[in-house]
């Protein structure tokens, strides 16, 4: 009855809304079956009315995905970077493994060009001693790239917002190993990069408290404890070209093809490095031509965040 009340009140979209803990909701969120089995095995069987901390389930989800989800680079809030000392037609092929220090999932070459994107969280205009990523005059490494980059200037629009970073590619040598490495995605349309994401859905706890039925902390009743800002939809994110490889590899398997025909896309699971684990949502549109390796112009890529990379110490259970 409470689940139906949440749906009818508009707090969730349906009974498979990824903020719920029904099996369809967990599946849509991208939770692998073995994580649920391991969680249930840990809890055992009891007739007592108990409240279980969500982090216990999340830990099992991370354990399962850490062993199976390929790693790719992405920027949820991309900022364009231009490497001023490289020619406009510069193109390298950088080989990256899907799993660090483990070739079980193989490797894939991605383009590295004069222009690329980084995430806005990897740049700060005012540097500080406890900040290790990019800032004006500061040098950082790019994942998998031989030489680091140094930010030399910042370009802004009429309103003063940062639109582009001008950096120098330190390929002349003489630089020590950088203390930090950041994600990047090449701006190389002829190689299909970046892969543009129509929506990335970031799900947070549906309720503000661990036990919304506890009237000592929620005197107004459990329905008043709903966090109506528990879903953040990010548009304009980008990922590297390996995302389409992962989708196509899933579609090439008999089991994967069957799931896609049913409209079940959550079997496509990835880790966006340093961001979190994500799964393709059923709202995604995957045209046959795109799955066959052709142009993906008509595709619609919608991903759900399954879980963060590690437990947020500040988050309530």
UniProtKB/TrEMBL annotation:
Protein name: Glutaminyl-tRNA synthetase
EC number of the protein: 6.1.1.18
Taxonomy, superkingdom: Eukaryota
Keywords: Ligase
Name of encoding gene: GLN4_2
């Amino acid at each position: 009855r409470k689940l139906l009340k949440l749906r009818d009140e508009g707090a969730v979209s349906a009974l498979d809304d990824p903020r719920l803990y029904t099996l369809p909701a967990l599946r849509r969120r991208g939770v692998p079956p073995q994580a649920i089995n391991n969680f249930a095995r840990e809890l055992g069987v009891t007739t007592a009315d108990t409240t279980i901390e969500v982090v216990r389930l999340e830990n099992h989800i991370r354990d399962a995905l850490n062993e199976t989800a390929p790693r790719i680079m992405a920027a949820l809030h991309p900022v364009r970077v231009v490497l001023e000392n490289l020619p406009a037609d510069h193109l390298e092929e950088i080989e990256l493994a899907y799993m660090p220090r483990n070739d079980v999932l193989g490797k894939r070459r991605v383009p590295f060009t004069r222009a690329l994107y980084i995430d806005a969280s990897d740049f700060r205009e005012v540097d500080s001693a406890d900040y290790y990523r990019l800032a004006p005059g500061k040098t950082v490494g790019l994942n998998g790239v031989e030489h680091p980059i140094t930010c030399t200037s910042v370009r802004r629009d009429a309103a003063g917002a940062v639109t582009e970073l001008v950096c120098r590619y330190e390929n002349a040598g003489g630089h020590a190993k950088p203390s930090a490495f950041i994600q990047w995605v090449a701006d190389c349309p002829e190689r299909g990069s970046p892969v543009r994401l129509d929506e990335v859905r970031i799900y947070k706890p549906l309720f503000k408290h661990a036990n919304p039925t506890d009237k000592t902390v929620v005197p107004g009743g459990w329905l008043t404890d709903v966090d109506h800002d528990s879903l953040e939809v990010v548009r304009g994110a980008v990922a590297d070209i390996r995302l389409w490889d992962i989708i196509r590899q899933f579609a090439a398997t008999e089991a994967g093809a069957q799931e896609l025909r049913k409209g079940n896309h959550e079997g496509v699971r990835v880790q966006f490095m340093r961001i979190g684990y994500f799964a393709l949502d059923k709202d995604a549109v995957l045209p046959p031509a795109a799955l066959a390796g052709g142009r993906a112009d008509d595709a619609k890529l919608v991903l759900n965040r399954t879980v963060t990379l590690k437990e947020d110490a500040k988050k309530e259970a």
